[in-house]
Each structure stands twice: as structure tokens, then as C-alpha cells.
Amino acid sequence: MASVTFDAVTKRYGDVVAVDSLDLEIVDGEFMVLLGPSGCGKTTALRMIAGLEDISDGTLRIGDRVVNDVDPARRDISMVFQSYALYPHMTVQRNIESPLLARHYHLDGPDQPARKLTSAERAERVAEAARVLDLEPYLKRKPAALSGGQRQRVALARAFVGRPQAFLMDEPLSNLDAKLRAQTRIELVDLHRRVGTTVVYVTHDQVEAMTMATRVAVMSMGKLQQVGTPQDVYAKPINTFVAQFIGTPPMNCVDAAIAADGTAVDLGAAGRLPLPAGLQARPAAGAPVVLGVRPEHLTLDPAGSLTAVVRAVEWLGHECLIAADLDDRLVTLRQAGMAILEPGAEVKVAVDAADVHLFDAETTERLT
Ligand SMILES: Nc1ncnc2c1ncn2[C@@H]1O[C@H](COP(=O)(O)OP(=O)(O)OP(=O)(O)O)[C@@H](O)[C@H]1O
Ligand SMILES: [Mg+2]
Question: Which of 270, 268, 248 is nearest to 260 (CA)?
């Protein structure tokens, strides 16, 4: 097992900066998720760890070793892709065994030369991988006779069998249907808990990030925005990009201003909200700000300080989403059960001061 450290790592393709001066330390044994929209540089970052892309600038380490110029085969990591491409003519057993056949391993101590595994050693590794991934009943089958989820587990077993220092995974669940994806998420977390190997997992799906990660690194346009536990990035997003990328429905972010007396957030005719605690510096009276409030923190409450006009109610079974205007700022409220509200109805809405997020209107950075 090993840590993976990016130190000001940049990847350029001609004029395109795919990864821009990335500083990130992935701790030994953690499940790190690289999260961001399409094109933000996630796959490029992962491929640099694997050694499949040259590094334009900066230093990449696996453990203590600088690997900028180390051959992919000598990095001791394995990668699982979205298309897991098993060999169709081989049994599950052979598929899992395949990466062990060609490679040489340092098995007899660091001073001894690397060698291939014996067939007995290979059989032991395959048996272990099959046990860990619950594939024992299927070892004699061919991939065509497996479900999508079972095939995905074979791909994971094939990555696992070499006992890598780290697993790299690039959107490995995106070919699965929603139900299987949810189930495989749980299996991956369980696998990680049992083997403890460092995982670097790339996805654009914030639900995968929130449910599986030890820590999440949120990227946008080649730049790291924020890194922290799922709870951290959800509770204290560093800017409006992270605020709106994490959480479904996303955080409401609307234009507002600091009230003339400097003590509240002014939403015009919709009313005022208390300033959150912990402001680094009290913004000037009248200063434009972006107000952020999560849909579940806008609650219907006759004593609330805001007045909203209902546009529509969407009932989702266990909860409903209410689209409403706060003086022409469209926001979403989320509440349990069903709200019986007609479009056009005026409602009172309350927000706890602790749930008010403020961002600088110009830089979009968090003010608390
Ligand atoms: N070989 C290449 N040549 C030129 N530009 C490239 C190359 N590979 C990637 N890029 C560019 O680098 C940027 C980052 O690409 P990357 O594949 O890392 O994004 P991603 O975050 O994995 O996106 P997705 O979620 O769509 O997979 C994109 O703008 C992409 O067009
Ligand atoms: Mg990608």
C-alpha cells in the first residue's frame, strides 16, 4: 500500500491545460474520489498516476518514490476502467489470472531479482481474489454467462489479484443500471474496508463521491477546488461551484446584498435573513453577496422571516420539492411528505442562521 502525492502537477496538451498545478496528497489506505464535471481533468490526473500520460510540470510520488519517469509496469498499481473488457473466450478463473502471467514480481525480498509467479502461487492469488469478491461459484464460467454486476466484480478481481499498492478506478460503475450501481457502491466500500488498499476513484457523480469517499477532491477546469471529507464539502463548500456541484437538488445560490444596517442579508421584498456566524470580516453595508441555502434548510414556517411565492410542487413520494420565488429569485425547498400548495400561493419560509452560506459576489469564494 502507498500514498500518492501530486506536487504542483500540470498536464498540458498543446494549449490545453488539462490539469493545472495540482497539489493533492492521497493518504495511504484512503478512498479518494476525484469529482468534477466532464472535461475537468479527472481522467488525466488518474492516467498520470498510472504512468499512461507524461507529466508536463511538477512532481508525482507513489509512497516516497518520485515516479515522473517510472515505467507504468513498475509502478505497482492497477487500473479499472468503465469498459471492463474481459476476455470472452476465457473462464472467469483465467480472466482473473491473466495479469499475473506476464508480470515479474519482487517476491523474495527487495534484494532478490523479480520473478514470475509459480502456478501454485497464481492459483492461491486467484482463489483469494475470488473469495474476496464472492466469485467462487462462477470461476468455471465464461463472461457471457455472468450478469453485468458479476462481470464488474471479475474486473475488480483482476485488478486485485496483483496486490497493487493502489487501485485506480475511472467511472467503473457507469455501465451499470441504477440498481446495480447502488449495490456495487456498497460492495466497493466493503472491499476497500477489508483490503485497506489506497483507492483513487474518478467520477462525475456526486452521489458516488458522497457515499464512497474517505475524502473527495472536487475539480473544475483542471483546478482543484476543495478537498475534504464528504461531510466537510457538503457543510462548508469553499465556493459557489462546490456548493452547487455537491448535493441534489443543488444548493440554492441567489444574488442578495448585505442590508443597509449591516446586520442581515437583504432579499428585497422577500425579506431578510440573519448573517451567519463566523464571518471572516463583516461585509460592508450594501455589499452584493451570493446567498447559499440548501433546499432542506428552507422550511415552511408561519413565523419565518421570508415571504415566497409558490411556482410548482413536485411530489416524489417520500418528499416533495417546492419551486418558489423569493422576490424573483427562483429557489427550491425540500420537505418530507406532500405540501398541498397552489401555484401563486404566498408562504412564509424560515432559515436557521447556521444554515446560511455567504459567498463573495465577485470571487464566488466563501465568506465564512
Ligand atoms: N490526448 C489529448 N489531447 C488533447 N486534449 C486532451 C487529451 N486528453 C484530454 N484532453 C483535454 O483535457 C481536458 C481534461 O480531459 P479529461 O479526460 O481528463 O477530463 P475528465 O474530467 O476525465 O472528463 P470526463 O468526465 O468527460 O471523462 C479536456 O479538456 C480534454 O479535452
Ligand atoms: Mg474521464
Answer: 268
Mutate to test the pocket of ligand 1, among 40, 200, 224 (most ligand atoms within 8 A of CB): 40
User: What ranges do the domains of the chain cover?
Assistant: 4-243, 253-360
Domain 253-360 has CATH 2.40.50.140: yes
Closest atom of ligand 1 relative to the 222 alpha carbon: 14
Q: State the pTM of this model.
A: 0.91
CA-41 nearest atom, ligand 1 = 18
16 lines ligand 1 (CB under 6 A): yes
pLDDT in tens, 21-43: 999 999 999 999 999 999 999 99
Instruction: Collapse the DSSP code of 271 into the 3-class scheme (helix H, G, I; strand E, B; otherwise coil) and give the result.
Output: strand
CA of 14 to the centre of ligand 1 (A): 12
Q: State in words which class domain 4-243 has.
A: alpha beta
